């Protein structure tokens, strides 16, 4: 296959039909809702394997005539080829749907504790799955945006003002982060070697609706809602750089539609907080004593601090986070979990059993 020009300056991509992988997961589902609300002209196909982390009900409320859900695995090359090779089609009421012209790739195994217990599914989905998608978009000349994480850069010390930039060296410390780093390398190499029109974004820790109860913030909220103690790893001094998931979705849209091909953009909202401070805030917002939690074992090799310098995307693409009042966003997240018990209650007991086995 002939290499496409690697130096297209700015590709103003106006997608008409996006394939969203992992669209039944936390950020993917929020992205589907966000696009439906903000870009009603776009049609979406979701490809999701519905692992323990994916839920069809996360897409409830989306206009059924504006998206198709496909239950399948990104590692299934035949299925991916079949989806991307489709010519345009029609909705059930006869309206034309353009062929898929962009892929936004969220699908991944995403939880560090799971990767520590068993890294192999992370290599399969995050590395092999990304390679399968890259081969298919290469064949069909389709725009590809890869969703990655700040964890590929390793961690920072607690007491320095340093932040990650697009030039920070890759230094992943955990099996999950290493699998995401590998996928980033694949994406860059498919750009350089084959001219596949790609962009990458590396985002900090997200929070908001539809996040699985295994993750830090929803775990604490749902522990308190179900009468379990909140659980803090180690002394809780580790720092994460939090961003409201809607701000991440808007940033992904900015990179997809206005990003420069082959480039990486860091996405963050200057939301650094220690785990201890976040937990105390959740406890206080939920009317509990701020000391009312248990310390549990930390992860082996735990990362200390993540912090992102997002000035490139702000400067070059004009994206700025809108939901930066952390306490207000935490209160909204608590209210969402309190009013959507039917969405998470079935996962709760099994998640806690698995944590108990891991000593967390
Ligand atoms: P998630 O675990 O909530 O969702 C992942 C989704 O992918 C699920 O719906 C799951 O069913 C699906 N999936 C898993 N394996 C699949 C496969 N083989 N084929 C098809 N679908 C599959 O994850 P998330 O938190 O929404 O993360 C989404 C993406 O964003 C990931 O790539 C993650 O690395 C990245 N990211 C997450 C955060 C965060 O804070 N959650 C931060 C930065 C980057
Ligand atoms: O019960 C808990 N108590 C606790 O103190 C849990 C589940 C976690 N923690 C700590 C561990 C981390 O220092 O909270 C911090 C955040 O943990 P997670 O929510 O598991 O997130 P993290 O490991 O930082 O990774 C997240 O951000 C980067 C996402 O899960 C990744 O997918 C993303 O790439």
UniProtKB/TrEMBL annotation:
Entry GO MF terms: dTDP-glucose 4,6-dehydratase activity
Cofactor requirements of the protein: NAD(+)
Methyltransferase among keywords: no
NAD(P)-binding domain residues: 19-332
The enzyme's E.C. designation: 4.2.1.46
Any single biological process term in GO: nucleotide-sugar metabolic process
SUPFAM superfamilies: NAD(P)-binding Rossmann-fold domains
Similarity section: Belongs to the NAD(P)-dependent epimerase/dehydratase family. dTDP-glucose dehydratase subfamily.
Name of the molecule in the record: dTDP-glucose 4,6-dehydratase
Organism: Galliscardovia ingluviei
Lineage: Bacteria, Bacillati, Actinomycetota, Actinomycetes, Bifidobacteriales
């Amino acid at each position: 296959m002939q290499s496409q020009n690697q130096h297209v300056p700015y590709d103003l991509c106006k997608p008409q039909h996006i394939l969203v992988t992992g669209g039944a997961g936390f950020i993917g589902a929020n992205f589907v809702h966000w696009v439906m609300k903000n870009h009603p002209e776009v049609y979406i196909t979701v490809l999701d394997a519905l692992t323990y982390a994916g839920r069809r009900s996360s897409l409830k409320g989306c206009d059924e005539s504006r998206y198709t859900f496909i239950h399948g695995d990104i590692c299934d090359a035949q299925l991916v080829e079949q989806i991307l090779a489709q010519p345009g089609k029609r909705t059930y009421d006869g309206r034309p749907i353009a062929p898929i012209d962009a892929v936004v790739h969220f699908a991944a195994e995403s939880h560090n504790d799971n990767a520590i217990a068993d890294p192999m599914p992370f290599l399969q989905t995050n590395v092999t799955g990304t390679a399968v998608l890259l081969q298919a978009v290469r064949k069909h000349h389709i725009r590809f945006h890869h969703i990655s994480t700040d964890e590929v850069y390793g961690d920072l010390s607690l007491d320095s003002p340093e932040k990650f930039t697009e030039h920070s060296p890759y230094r992943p410390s955990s099996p999950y982060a290493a699998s995401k780093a590998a996928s980033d390398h694949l994406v860059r190499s498919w750009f350089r070697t084959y001219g596949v029109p790609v962009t990458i974004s590396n985002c900090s820790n997200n929070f908001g609706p539809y996040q699985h109860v295994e993750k830090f913030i929803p775990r604490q909220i749902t522990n308190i809602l179900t009468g379990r103690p909140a659980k803090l790893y180690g002394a809780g001094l580790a720092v994460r750089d939090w961003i409201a998931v809607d701000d991440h979705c808007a940033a992904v849209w900015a990179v997809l539609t206005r990003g420069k091909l082959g480039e990486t953009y860091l996405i963050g909202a200057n939301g650094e907080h220690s785990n201890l401070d976040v937990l105390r805030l959740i406890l206080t917002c939920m009317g509990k004593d701020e000391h009312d939690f248990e310390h549990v074992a930390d992860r082996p090799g735990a990362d200390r601090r993540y912090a992102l310098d997002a000035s490139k995307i702000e400067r070059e693409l004009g994206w700025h986070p809108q939901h930066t009042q952390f306490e207000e966003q935490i209160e909204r997240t608590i209210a969402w979990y309190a009013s959507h018990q039917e969405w998470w209650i079935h996962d709760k007991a099994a998640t806690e059993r698995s944590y108990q086995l891991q000593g967390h």
